[in-house]
Design goal:
The chain is α/β, with parallel strands linked by helices. The chain is built from 11 helices and 15 strands. About 35% of the residues lie in helices and about 25% in strands.
Length: about 325
């Protein structure tokens, strides 16, 4: 399949000298669900603004659907839909009027708009609230309305800048299912940014992880996690400061352990066969009188991928927890 987005050596330096995007290159294929995963300030919105012709790049080469981002910006705007990070709904208008207004901006005719608005209200589950003023919508409803608005002119490429940030798990799941439907049933290419690991993992066929303006890893979620090649065991100690040097020494000598790192909980161990190793760890710490408060283990997550490439975790609240198993603390 052909590339719908090509980005080569893209750089963005804001007027105050901030280098928000630092020489990134990637491509997105037609029909793909592509993700840009990264923490606050990584450069996600800056990249989306450039791709959607809202911000001029400092340097690099970008094409969208074969059009040059600067010379053919008008042609690009016709075929893309954009949901920006801040909701753009007009609170004085009803949900229906908000979508209609966008249709007029796209110079669609009234009959066409009417039909499409009804379809979209159905798609995002806002039929009942359609005649209510948008200022009285909840956060999740506003995001859904924003999504519908971005789709009025049947774009073939949809840009979504953190479409679920701040939403409760239920609203988030609803948006996920609309997006999957748009991608699978209507063949719309989706470029999505997110800080949520689970979201990127669930939705994106391929993604790039961005940090401080640089792409640190790219691939399918499965490929990226496979690269880690080990499960992670997260260990909390009752007295982390005092006991962790000794505990790390003990764990490092065990077979199948590939890496032992300091972490938020206290210690994170990467190992093959984590399930089997846990008993050894518990025993070894116990014989050295090191008191554990908890041990959890999980298969590699995109957070482990981020950790491997940056030495940090993506610090966001995860509303949907990764599957992990918990071993009770000793008192
Ligand atoms: N108009 C601006 N002028 C100067 N610096 C800016 C401007 N907009 C963004 N930045 C800076 O550029 C960097 C990247 O910001 P950007 O908004 O692209 O990040 P982001 O990945 O979208 O973050 P978030 O997840 O918080 O939305 C940050 O350091 C930010 O402070
Ligand atoms: Mg942003």
């Amino acid at each position: 399949m052909s590339d719908i987005i090509t980005v080569k050596n893209l750089v963005e330096i804001y007027s105050d000298g901030t280098k928000a995007v630092d020489d990134i290159s990637f491509t997105v294929k037609e029909g793909e669900f592509f993700g840009f995963l990264g923490p606050n300030g990584a450069g996600k919105s800056t990249t989306i603004k450039i791709l959607t012709t809202l911000l001029r790049k400092t340097s690099g080469a970008v094409t969208v659907s074969g059009y040059d981002i600067e010379k053919q910006a008008a042609a690009i705007r016709k075929i893309i839909g954009v949901q920006s990070q801040e909701t753009t709904v007009d609170g004085d208008l009803t949900g229906r009027e908000n979508i209609e207004l966008q249709g007029h901006f796209h110079q669609m005719n009234t009959g066409e708009i009417k039909k499409r608005v009804n379809e979209l209200l159905g798609l995002v589950g806002l039929e009942e609230a359609a005649e209510k003023r948008a200022r009285n919508y909840s956060g999740g409803m506003k995001k859904r309305l924003d999504l519908a608005t971005a789709l009025i002119h049947k774009p073939k490429l949809l840009f979504l800048d953190e479409p679920t940030t701040g939403l409760d798990p239920q609203s988030r799941a609803a948006i996920w299912s609309y997006l999957e439907k748009l991608n699978k049933d209507e063949g719309i290419t989706i470029f999505l940014t997110t800080q949520y690991l689970e979201e990127a993992d669930k939705l994106c066929k391929r993604l790039s992880i961005i940090d401080s303006g640089k792409i640190v890893a790219s691939g399918s979620p499965a490929e990226l996690k496979h690269e880690i090649g080990a499960d992670s065991i997260r260990i909390s100690l009752e007295n982390c400061e005092k006991d962790s040097p000794k505990a790390k020494e003990l764990i490092k000598t065990m077979t199948d352990v590939t890496e032992v790192l300091d972490s938020e909980e206290c210690i994170t161990v990467y190992a093959k066969n984590a399930g089997l190793l846990i008993a050894d760890i518990v025993r070894a710490l116990d014989s050295s009188n090191i008191r554990l408060s908890s041990v959890t283990f999980s298969s590699p997550s995109l957070d482990d991928v981020f950790m491997k490439h940056t030495g940090r975790r993506i610090r966001t609240e995860e509303l949907v927890k990764a599957p992990s198993r918990m071993f009770g603390g000793r008192r």
